[in-house]
Write a structure and sequence with these properties.
This protein is an alpha+beta fold. It is about 30% helix and about 25% strand. The chain folds into two domains: about 250 residues, Aminopeptidase (3-Layer(aba) Sandwich), CATH 3.40.630.10; about 120 residues, Alpha-Beta Plaits (2-Layer Sandwich), CATH 3.30.70. The radius of gyration is 23 Å and the shape is elongated. The chain starts with a helix and ends with a helix.
Length: about 375
């Protein structure tokens, strides 16, 4: 029987970035699970280069618990790591360093370490593993994974615990997110003709201003949810490109941006308002340049927010198995909103701190890893009764 640390050492050694093939890592996990006599089902992408997996431990009865996590990690390129990021390193300070140790292979290691206990237990309700790919580039595979679970098992699970790093605090809320690209097509020309042409860069600046003004409008309207930091919906432009020279009017520019919404705000409505403004600008400026165009591109569907009511059974269950009676909400997006949308009472709870995710020298405290194992052992005991 492998410990959670031994399993985490193996998981970290697979450098599977979001967007890349995860087949080697998926196969190792699959073979590990199958060694305990558990049948594993894969959910591949269309190209067959990636796959999620799911399985059921225990009886085929309604009311079970899904344990959800993702197998991919973010890049390390350009980050000042002190150690090899894909070798789990113990520096003797109670922390285990490595990419994905916290986000979120630590939780996967806890699930796999407790699997022998799950198999031996006299479970009255089943436990499911649901491990996805490409979470780090937009929670891309979870919707298909959820649909496949619903189509595979005749019984319906009731709960979903998404093991994102939360310091083992039951987390009932997350912001939703949509990442977009906007391309602006203007007319090239000499910069002295700025009033006779349409600068794609100038129009991009107006779009950025609209986005910032929209965020401020929500703040002024006191659209707040104090569980989050910041407590309001955010609109952020992270990348802008365009132009070739100071004296040439830019005929093309683009911006990449995101919206992170609190549960009470309408993500699709904000995007519709932005698209309406873009259409207004097109109608006005086509009188100057008929070819003026703004394209708003959503490369993948929005990720819904999570807003689990405190009176739901999942909240009391996770409080009980963690021994933590406070709850939290997080500003990052995760697959929890997707599982909730799929009809499961959902909550985020996992080992490690989100403050360590996505940065150089990412780590998980050994104490957190132990608490993750303890939570899952308590879940097993709870489902035996």
């Amino acid at each position: 029987m492998l410990t959670s640390e031994q399993i985490l050492t193996k998981l970290v050694s697979f450098p599977v970035l979001g967007g890349e093939s995860n087949l080697d890592l998926k196969q190792w996990i699959r073979e590990y699970i199958e060694n305990f006599g558990i049948a594993v089902t894969e959910v591949p992408n269309k190209e067959g280069t990636k796959a999620s997996l799911h399985c059921r431990i225990g009886p085929a009865v309604p009311g079970g618990v899904i344990l959800s996590g993702h197998m991919d990690v973010v890049p390390v390129e350009g980050q000042p790591w002190d150690t090899d990021p894909f070798v789990l390193t113990d520096k003797g300070d109670g922390k285990l360093y490595g990419r994905g140790s916290c986000d979120m292979k630590g939780f996967l290691a806890c699930c796999l370490a407790v699997l022998p206990d799950m198999v031996k237990a006299d479970l009255k309700k089943p436990i499911y593993f649901a491990f996805s790919y490409d979470e780090e580039i937009g929670c891309l595979s979870a919707p298909d994974l959820i649909k496949h679970i619903q189509a595979t098992y005749e019984e319906k699970p009731k709960y979903a615990i998404i093991g994102e790093p939360s310091m083992m605090i039951p987390t009932v809320g997350q912001k939703g997110i949509c990442v977009l690209e906007t391309q602006v097509n203007g007319s090239a020309g000499h910069s002295s003709r700025i009033k006779q042409e349409v600068s794609a860069i100038h129009e991009t600046a107006r779009l950025i201003t609209w986005l910032e003004n929209k965020m401020n409008e929500l703040i002024v309207a006191k659209r707040f949810d104090d569980r989050f930091d910041p407590p309001h919906t955010t609109l952020h432009v992270g990348k802008v490109s365009g132009g070739i020279a100071p004296n040439v009017i830019a005929d093309h520019a683009s911006l990449h941006w995101d919206v992170r919404v609190i549960p009470r705000d309408d993500l699709s409505g904000i995007i519709r308002e932005f698209k309406t403004f873009c259409m207004q600008r097109e109608n006005e400026l086509r009188e100057v340049f008929p070819g003026f165009k703004i394209d708003v591109i959503e490369h993948h569907p929005p990720v819904p927010s999570l807003d689990t009511s405190l009176d739901r059974d999942i909240v009391s269950l996770v409080k009980k198995i963690t021994g933590t009676h406070t709850v939290d909400a997080v500003s990052y997006a995760a697959e929890a909103g997707q599982f909730a949308e799929g009809g499961y009472e959902s909550i985020i709870c996992g080992p490690g701190s989100i403050a360590q995710a996505h940065r150089a020298n990412e780590f998980i405290a050994r104490e957190q890893l132990d608490r993750g194992v303890e939570m899952l052992k308590n879940l097993v005991a709870e489902l035996e009764t």
